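Final report, closing paragraph on structural work. Over the funding period we assembled a curated collection of sequence-structure pairs, and we close with a single example.
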Amino acid sequence: MSWIQKQQLSLWERFCANILKAGPVPKHVAFIMDGNRRYAKKCQMEHQEGHSKGFNKLAETLQWCLNLGIREVTVYAFSIENFKRPKSEVDGLMDIAREKFGHLLEEQEEIQKHGVCIRVLGDLHLLPLDLQKQMAQAVQATKNYNQCFLNICFAYTSRHEISNAVKEMAWGVEQGLLDPSDVTESLLEKCLYTCHSSNPDIVIRTSGEVRLSDFLLWQTSHSCLVFQPVLWPEYKFWNLCEAILQFQMNNSMLQKARDMYAEERKRQQLEKDQAAVIEQLLQEGLQASGDSQLQRTLLHKLSARREERVQGFLQALELKRADRLERLNTASA
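Its predicted structure, as stored:
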């Protein structure tokens, strides 16, 4: 089944979509697509067929998101924890991934027409080499598209992502690109797999489970969490509308919390910089409460030097990650 579906909304669905779009529309929605195995059991089919039905539902849901003006979607496709499932099921999921990424590479014209940028987030080294190469091809082929974004979390957990970000910052310090004092929450955020995305406005989990299962833990602290009882392959346009309505009802409160958090982080960074300037003045034998103009100048220089180091590190990190994908892409050519 195609990644890009061409089916149109019904007249009634379009009417309701237009009403929703009169309010705040989420820019970024994340899905925990849960319930494929329970659906398979319910319909007396093999697990693999249930997972295949789940992918078909994803393609349909992506079209709904486009119709509603949602330009970024992140999906939890395969957790690192899923490797603990029976080997036959894991192999089946890898086969489905090969098939679907193969279709994606065959649909380049449609992907380009819609301007879909595909990103695969996770530890690709844990996957079979041929699948790694397929994913790298898809990412490289679409990296310059910017009309809409699909982030596929595969071989992913949030704890793994955060620990990897910490390792990347440690690498930056070891390479002399960063000072230890440059390591902050803000920098860690820029080292996550999701560094090119805004945080999700909504996280939707299907199947009735009320937990995040190690998905985007860092990024969802101010997201609207929606837990729905429907099994993922049975997901409907109206379920998505319900989730968006919940977001709209809570958006002002969530935005206020985001703004307060951003201001607090700025305040903490300013206090840290002021303390560093005072320490520098004392080391130079000057009064910490002396020339305020000198303090402002030193604060500006401190901030500018830190920003220069951070940008240099982030550019080096981006090149390192791009090089990994390029090597995989070259190997598959």
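The mean pLDDT is 93. The longest helix spans residues 237-283. We thank the funder for supporting this effort.
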